[in-house]
Amino acid sequence: MEIKVRIAEEKDVERVAMLYERLHDYLETHDNHPRWKRGIYPTKVNAQEGFGKGWLYVAEIDGKLAGSVIYLHEQGEVYSQVKWPEEIPGDNVYVIHVLAVHPDFFRMGVGTALLDYACNMGRENGVGAVRLDVYEKNSSAIHLYESCGFLYRGTIDLGLEELYGLKWYHVYEKILL
Known about the structure:
Oligomer: single chain
Number of strands: 7
């Protein structure tokens, strides 16, 4: 089984939106560690925005959509709350956003492939680090990030408590230089 990661094409936006819906279906009947909410996050709008900026990527297995991610090429002001061990300019960092794996492909290495792709692409482009944030109680994602070599850098408030009811997020980083 080979996992192929590539930049999304326009036809993939609808596929990613369907992946989000299938993931919401799954999360409604299982532990919802990320606390994602149907119709609020993630949605087709997230996929469209990522695609529009050229930041949406997909992972496929045998031509089937197994996962997706948005590699932001900017970090929000909220990341200034973190005391990073190395000062890397915000435009020299990739930020992992909306990493989603289709439930049919859980535990098959899709998340790892999407993270590895970001790190490899970052190294090729001279990017200093890959960063991400994760809801503090999303234990499955935290385990994935740590197993891929991301290091915990602190806990921040993303200002999402009113919208999502989620206040604290752990921030992780993988230095690429």
